[in-house]
Structure formats: structure tokens, C-alpha cells
Amino acid sequence: MEATAKVASIFIYPIKSCRGISVSQAPLTPTGFRWDRNWLVVNSKGNAYTQRVEPKLALVEVNLPHEAFLDDWKPTKNSFMEIKAPKMGVLKIPLEGAHDVAGDVSVWEWSGSALDEGAEAAKWFSDFLGKPSRLVRFNAASESRAVDPNFAHGHSTMFSDGYPFMLISQGSLAALNKLLKEPVPINRFRPNIFVDGCQPFSEDLWKEIRINKFTFEGVKLCSRCKVPTINQDTGVAGSQPTETLKQIRSDNILRPDKKQQGKVYFGQNLVWKDKYNGGKGSIVHVGDPVVVLRKVSTAAEAAA
Prior knowledge:
Order of helices and strands: EEEEEEEEEEHEEEEHEEEHHEEE
Structural class: mainly beta
Shape: globular
Radius of gyration: 19 Å
């Protein structure tokens, strides 16, 4: 089958709601790309901080070793995640090592135990946000966070909002930007997979796609929250692009015959369908072809 598009960029967001990393390749896991949303900043009660309430998180830059995205790389005691922000020193988080188990942390409807990254990380984020904060890591050894079984039964994720992967096309971004006085970059929408070469909003219709040799299922149109209105360079929110999306991408326009929820949609949530073999050789690269295996004929038929 002929490729419909190709992978233009891959983005990993190690800490939920902090800046992403653009990488040339990323190993797949059933819960998302390796390292994606493995960490979370929480308040004193263990509740997640996101840009919806703490837009300053947009200014937190996160870096991982380049080799962390190689196929069979394992962290050593000299492997760190580096965290930077304006007027803050560099925080280094060891990628390997023992952790204290934090009490319950919560993301939306889910709660479970997590691994606490310690006092130095807590002080750094508390100082930066100006309120008590801690940095925790998903406790994959003991916890699992299922995605909504109504859309993707049997799949799980770490600290992403709802699903392991999110895909957007360059065509969709370009179509939106044509309508905006000030174009927005793709970082407003925080996709994992950014593809190019297809028509605007084609991804709405994709029920099953192959990237490289891996099969993904499109499980739900991505309904958008406040975050796309936050300038990721300044942490300041405005009204766009959501105001424009309401005019072209709301449920009453895309899904007029369905129950109205006042949502706007941009992007497609995905799960990885292949059997996981421990990860060896399961890598998506920039430049990989995207082949559409199954699709619906209109956005109204897509799950949302």
C-alpha cells in the first residue's frame, strides 16, 4: 500500500506539562514512547500540576542524554535528566537508582503510588512555582493506569492526559494557521507524532495506520483543553487558537448529529496494537512512511 504521509517530527515530554524534546527516533512501549510523561510535578496533596493551572511549567526545559533514545540503552549511575528554567539553577535527576515510594498521587481520575525524586527536586519546583511541589516518577513496577476502556480496552499509559500517543498532521496545522492573524507553532498542541504529506484533518479519519512496520489504532479525536492557548515560549495564555478552532472544529460542526459536549477537536489519539516483545527493534524514526490501513469516511463517524 502507498504511504499517505511521513513522520516529520517526534516529540517526547518526559515531565508532564513541561517542554518537549524533539528527537530523530523513539523506542515504542505499550504506554507510549520511552520516557514520555514518565514524571509528574505534584502539589502537597499529590495532585498533578499541569499548564492548565500552572502555565509557568511551559518554561521548564527538559533534556535527556541523546543515547537514551537508542534501541537497547540502559541508564547507568552517570545518566541524568537535566531540568532548566529561567532564573533557576540546573536540576539533575538520576535516571537510575533507588527511590522512596511517595504516597498516592493523582492525575485526573487515577491515583496510585509513585516514586519520589527527593528533596532537591522538591525544593527546585517549589521555588520555581512558589508553592509546595514535588517531582515524582511513574512506578511502573507496581502501578498501571488504564486508558478509557470505552475507547481502547486493555491499553494503559503513564502520566499522559488520556492515551499513549497523539498524532497531528502538518496539513491540519497549516489549515488552522491560515485562519489566524498570528500563526501558532506545533508545540501548542503537544503531539508525539507530527506527520506531513496528507490533506488537512485527514488524521480524523484514520482508524488504523502503519508507521514503519508498526500498527497503531486511532481511538479517539483529541478534544482540546486550555493548553493550546498558552504561548510555550512565555507561559502566557491568550484566546487563540481555541476561538478559531471553535468556529471550524467544534462538535456541533464536526458531529452535528451526536450528543453535543461543547468540545473542540485537533489531532487523533492512538494506541499501539502490536504484541510487545520487550522493545528490541521497536523504534519509530523521523522519515518513516505512514500507511493508512483503515479509515472512516467522515469525522462524525470517528470516536470522540
